[in-house]
Specification:
alpha+beta, three-stranded mixed sheet
Length: 646
C-alpha cells in the first residue's frame, strides 16, 4: 500500500473523499462550491476533514509566506535577484513592509477558510454520526489556525458573521477584532485541549493529527502566551488589552503548563520519536519519517493529487517552491572543455541543486557563528549544499560523452567531482579571488593544488552562497537525466517535528518551569543526536562517527534564551520558524538587528555590515489590504482595524 496522505483543495471548493482497500491515501474530487447544508451530511463532514490537510499546501511551501517567516531574521536576508517582497521584509532600508507588500496575507486568506470549515464540522459532525476523534481533528485545526493568526497579527476576529466560533454561511462585510487574551482563552486553548483529550495516539491515516501533535502545538501556544503576558521589552499589542489573563493565571503558570505538556509528549510519543541521525530527518529518500508529525504533503506520482504540475512550476500556491528562493544560480559555474567555457553544474532535480531563483541568502554569521562547529555537529552538513559537483554527463546536457573538464588551477575533474566548494572556515593561506567573474564564471577563487574553485565563509555574497540542501527537491524519476528541475518540489513541507517538544520544554525551563528534566538535559538530547554522523553529505561518502560526548560536554552548564534560540536555529534552520521565534522571545532586534554579507555582483567578497531598523510595531504584521478593501466600514473604522504603524 502507499504510505502518504495527499490533499487537493481549490479555495472555495469542496472535495470528495474516497477510501478503498488497504490504502491510507485520502483521495478527492473537486466540487464547485460548499453548500451551507453540506456539513449536515456525513459526506460533507468527511470532505471538510480532508480539506484541513489540503489547506496546509496553500501556506507551507508558498514562497512569499515563507519569505515573511524568514527574511529579516538572523537566518535570511534578500539575495541578488530579490524583488520588493523580499527587500521589504529585510527592514534594511531598501523597502518597507506595508499592507500590500506583507505576504502574511497568505496566512490570513487561507486560515479563515479552514477555520470556518472546522466550525461547520464541530457544530454538525456528531449529529451525522461522525466519531468524536474525527471531529477532534477539526478542533485541532481551528486551534492551530488561530494560534498562527494571533502570533502573526495580534488579536483577530472570532466572529466570522454568525457569532464567535460559529460556522458562517452568509457573506459578511463587517468584522471586529478580538483581543489576544480572548483569542487564546476562547479559541486556541479550548480547541487544542479538546484535541489532546480526544485525538488518538496513532494517526487514523498517514499524516493525520494525533494526541502528541496536539500536545506540541498546545505547549507552544502556552509558551508563546506566557511570553506575551510577561512582555519583557514592553512591545505593544493590538487591539489594546491589559497583559492579564482572563482566567487569572500569570506568565509563570503558563510556562509551567508548556513544560509539563511538552514532557507528556516526550514521555508518551505514540508512533513518533527522534531518528538516529540528523541527516536522516531531512534526506528526501526518508520523507514522512517518524520525527515529522505534520506536513503539507505533495507527491510526484500524480499531478491530480499533487495539486500542481510535475514538470513546470508557476511560482504560485499550492506549489512547494520555497526551496527555489534560497537557491542561487549555480548553473553559471564554468569549467573548460578544451578552450570552450561550459556549464559544468547544470540544473537538475537533485536535493543539492533544483531551480535557482536567488531571492534569499543566509547572512555570513549563519556560517561563522550559528554553525561555527562543523566538525562535531552534523547539522551544518545536513542543512546546506556546500559542494557543487559536476553533472555535465547526464542525459540531455549535450556533454554526455565528455569524460573530463578542466577546472581550477588547470586541473581536470570528472563527473561527480567537486567543481566549487564553500569552505567550512577561512583557510590559512589566502584565497586568490578574481576581480569579477573569473574563470569559474561566478567569481570563485583558487587555492594551490585544488581542482575545485573555492569560497570561504567571509566570501559569501548576495549572489553566490551555499545552497539549501534541506529543502532541495527529491525525485525518483530522473532516469539518468536532469529530471524535472523546473517543477515545484514534490516533497512534503514539514510543519511540526517531534524534536521541537525538547525545545519547548527547555525554553520553558529557562523561564522558570520545573520538573524532572533540566533545560540542559533536554537540549543535550538534541545535541547528542547532532553529534552522530552516518553520512558525510557534502563529502558524498560514508562517515560513521559519534561526537555526541563532545557535543554534550560543550553545552554551557547554565543555558539562557539566546542559547536556546541558537540551538533552535541549528536544528530547524530555514523551516519557517525563525520570525515567530524572535518575535515570541522579543529577541528580534538583538539577534537580527545587524548582519554581514557580500555584494550583489560576482567577485564581491568583502563583507558589508548592514543595520536593520526593527521597530516595536513590526512585531505584528499588517492586516492585509485585501481584507480592509472588502469590508463595509468608514475609513476611520478601517484605520482602527489596522495594526498601528501600517
Amino acid at each position: 500500500m502507499k504510505r502518504y496522505i495527499i490533499k487537493n483543495l481549490i479555495i472555495g471548493a469542496a472535495v470528495v473523499l474516497s477510501l478503498s482497500g488497504c490504502s491510507d491515501i485520502l483521495e478527492e474530487k473537486p466540487h464547485d462550491f460548499y453548500e451551507p447544508n453540506y456539513f449536515k451530511t456525513e459526506q460533507g463532514v468527511i470532505q471538510g476533514l480532508t480539506s484541513h490537510y489540503a489547506h496546509l499546501r496553500w501556506i507551507y511551501g508558498q514562497a512569499y509566506f515563507y519569505n515573511a517567516c524568514q527574511t529579516g531574521t538572523d537566518e535570511a536576508t534578500y539575495a541578488q535577484s530579490a524583488d520588493g517582497n523580499f527587500k521589504d521584509h529585510d527592514l534594511s532600508g531598501v523597502g518597507i513592509i506595508n499592507p500590500n507588500s506583507s505576504r502574511s496575507d497568505v496566512l490570513w486568506n487561507n486560515s479563515y477558510y479552514d477555520i470556518n470549515t472546522a466550525s461547520g464540522i464541530i457544530e454538525n459532525g456528531a449529529a451525522v454520526g461522525i466519531a468524536p476523534n474525527l471531529i477532534a481533528e477539526s478542533k485541532f485545526f481551528r486551534g492551530f489556525d488561530y494560534f498562527l493568526l494571533v502570533q502573526t497579527f495580534g488579536g483577530v476576529p472570532l466572529d466570522l458573521g454568525a457569532g464567535e466560533l460559529k460556522f458562517n454561511s452568509k457573506p459578511s462585510r463587517s468584522s471586529k477584532r478580538n483581543t489576544v487574551p480572548e483569542v487564546y482563552t476562547k479559541a486556541v486553548f479550548p480547541d487544542l485541549t479538546a484535541a489532546v483529550n480526544e485525538l488518538p495516539d496513532a494517526p487514523r491515516l498517514t499524516g493525520t493529527a494525533t494526541k502528541t501533535l496536539a500536545r506540541l502545538i498546545l505547549a507552544k501556544a502556552y509558551l508563546t502566551y506566557a511570553w506575551w503576558l510577561e512582555n519583557p521589552n514592553n512591545i505593544p499589542t493590538y487591539p489594546d488589552a491589559p497583559r492579564t489573563d482572563p482566567d487569572g493565571h500569570n506568565a509563570q503558570w503558563y510556562f509551567q503548563q508548556a513544560y509539563d505538556l511538552a514532557l507528556q509528549g516526550i514521555n508518551n510519543p505514540g508512533p513518533y520519536g527522534l531518528l538516529e541521525s540528523f541527516y536522516d530527518v531531512n534526506t528526501g529518500s526518508n520523507d514522512r519519517n517518524k520525527e515529522v508529525m505534520l506536513y503539507a504533503d505533495r507527491t510526484q506520482d500524480s499531478e491530480y493529487y499533487n495539486g500542481s504540475s510535475l514538470t513546470y512550476g508557476n511560482g504560485g500556491a499550492p506549489d512547494n517552491f520555497a526551496g527555489w528562493m534560497v537557491t542561487w544560480n549555480y548553473t553559471a559555474i564554468r569549467s573548460k572543455n578544451g578552450s570552450a567555457a561550459v556549464s559544468s553544474v547544470q540544473r537538475e532535480a537533485n536535493q543539492f541543486l533544483g531551480r535557482p531563483w536567488t531571492r534569499m541568502v543566509p547572512p555570513i554569521e549563519v556560517f561563522t557563528k550559528t554553525f561555527a562547529d562543523k566538525t562535531n555537529d552534523s547539522r551544518y552538513d545536513g542543512t546546506f549544499a556546500a559542494v557543487f559537483r559536476g553533472n555535465w554527463n547526464l542525459q540531455g546536457t549535450g556533454l554526455t560523452n565528455v569524460a573530463t573538464l578542466t577546472n581550477a588551477n588547470g586541473l581536470t575533474i570528472k563527473p561527480g567531482d567537486a567543481v566549487l566548494t564553500f569552505l567550512n572556515e577561512e583557510p590559512t593561506s589566502p584565497i586568490a579571488y578574481p576581480s569579477g567573474q573569473g574563470d569559474s564564471g561566478v567569481g570563485a577563487g583558487v587555492l594551490p593544488g585544488r581542482a575545485d574553485y573555492v569560497i570561504s565563509p567571509n566570501g559569501i555574497s548576495r549572489i553566490v552562497y551555499p545552497g539549501f540542501w534541506k529543502l532541495g527537491p527529491y525525485r525518483t524519476d530522473n532516469a539518468g537525466g536532469l529530471g524535472q528541475p523546473n517543477a515545484a518540489s514534490t516533497r512534503p513541507f514539514p510543519v511540526a517535528k517531534f524534536s521541537e517538544l525538547y525545545f519547548v520544554a527547555a525554553e520553558a525551563a529557562v523561564k522558570g518551569a520545573t520538573g524532572t528534566l533540566s533545560a540542559r538535559t533536554l537540549i543535550n538530547v538534541i545535541r547528542a543526536r547532532a553529534g552522530k554522523w552516518r553520512w558525510d553529505n557534502n563529502g558524498n561518502t560514508a562517515k560513521v562517527l559519534d561526537n555526541s560526548a563532545a557535543m554534550t560536554a560543550a553545552t554551557p552548564a547554565v543555558i539562557d534564551i539566546n542559547y536556546i534560540l541558537a540551538e533552535r536555529s541549528r536544528e530547524l534552520f530555514g523551516e519557517g520558524y525563525r520570525w515567530y521565534d524572535l518575535v515570541r522571545t522579543q529577541k528580534w532586534n538583538e539577534l537580527a538587528g545587524e548582519y554581514s554579507i557580500g555584494g550583489s555582483n560576482y567577485g564581491q567578497h568583502t563583507p558589508e555590515k548592514v543595520t536593520r531598523t526593527i521597530d516595536a510595531y513590526h512585531y505584528l504584521r499588517p492586516i492585509p489590504q485585501g481584507q480592509l478593501d472588502g469590508m463595509e466600514m468608514s475609513p476611520a473604522e478601517k484605520a482602527t482595524y489596522q495594526n498601528p504603524g501600517y
